[in-house]
Amino acid sequence: MYGQEVPTITVAKGDKINLTVSPLGGGEGAAATKTLQNDLTLSGCFTLSENAVYTARGTASGGNLQGQVVDHSGGTVLSKSYSGNARENAHRFADGIVETLTGNKGFATSKIAFVATRSGKKEVYVGDYDGTNVRQLTRDAVISVHPSISPDGRRIAYTGYQSGYPDVYVIDLASGARNRIVNFPGTNSGAAFSPDGGRIALTVSKDGNPELYTVGAGGGGARRLTHTRGVESGPSWSPSGDEIVYSFDDGRGPQLYRISSSGGSGQPVATGHGYCTEPNWSPDGKKIAFNVRGGGGFEIAIVDLSGGGTRIVSSGENPVWGADSRHIMFAEGGGLYLLDAVTSHKTKILDDLGKITEPSWSR
């Protein structure tokens, strides 16, 4: 196999690849195997079974993981070594397997941010996508809401009330440094990082009513995008960074609109629903997940931008896409859930932190 191109394997929607995970050897092997199996199961791409077409194997010890995937004829389709902590190495190996065997991006190394009330106040928390390594990021003892994790998972923007007013702050996760980047008079909220991490879209009310703005991720360079009498909220960027989808309410109920990220006029997105909020644009650019008001509360809908209509996929709030444009993280009943939008399989990720709301997911 050396020197040859790895074959592209095309997988039909909903089909799963049979994969055997041999227990990894080495001192960190048992823990790495458990993480790897969980990642591959949550990806929705595999059926883990014995005597499958592909076998994942390797060793993990001393901060190094040597991973391989071989096919049933013994050919190597993936061979790579990873260095770091055992869990991170296993996540990276899982993403390598997903990308090699399906051609899609994996999300095992991704990070999440969300609001939780365990302390008695709304504070921002961060963790790994699978609900491990969760830590409380803010301890402001005031309201902290609308966290947005940067696509690379290294920064969090959120709205905090430390000054007594809603301002937008950015925290660097590695250093812990926090900067207030937007503090216009009035409300500054709903910050969302652009795909390249260089800009932030948000709602600003300094003009008298809430309008859509973009600013540099370090503050400054504010640009007003909308000029309406209604309320704009919940911006989310297209993967190219050229457009922003948002919720617009002119008093007749919120609807989804899209606008050029350099300004112009907003254009309605046809959803077939009368009350649409919290849009989130998928990384493949093909669809938008959003909230609609259903019978007993909020439901999660997906609109196909190529004209494929809208479908309801679950109850819940604040849907955000994963890197694979297949999975959605959302909040429901105080817990955090992962939904496979292809199979409708729902997995609880977290539920012991008070009430969890407003997830954000790195890509």
Structure description:
The chain has 363 residues and is mainly β. The protein has helices at 29-42, 86-102; strands at residues 17-21, 46-48, 54-61, 64-71, 76-83, 111-116, 123-128, 135-136, 144-149, 155-160, 167-172, 178-182, 188-193, 199-204, 211-216, 223-224, 231-237, 243-249, 255-260, 267-268, 276-281, 287-293, 298-304, 309-315, 317-321, 327-332, 335-340, 346-350, 356-361. The strands form 7 sheets. A 5-stranded mixed sheet has the order 2-1-3-4-5, covered by helices on one side. The protein has a 4-stranded antiparallel sheet with strand order 8-7-6-29, with no helix packed on it. Helix 1 (29-42) packs across helix 2. The protein is globular and about 65 Å long. It starts with 16 loop residues before the first strand and ends with a strand. The model is unreliable at 1-12 (pLDDT under 50).
* Low-confidence parts: 1-12
C-alpha end-to-end distance: 31 Å
Structural class: mainly beta
**Biggest sheet: strands, sense, closure?**
5 strands, mixed
| Global shape | globular
| Rounded average pLDDT | 94
- Number of E strands: 29
As a percent range, the share of helical residues equals under 10%
Strand neighbour order, sheet with most strands: 2-1-3-4-5
**Radius of gyration based on Cα positions:** 21 Å
Number of helix segments? 2
How much of the sequence lies in strands comes to over 45%
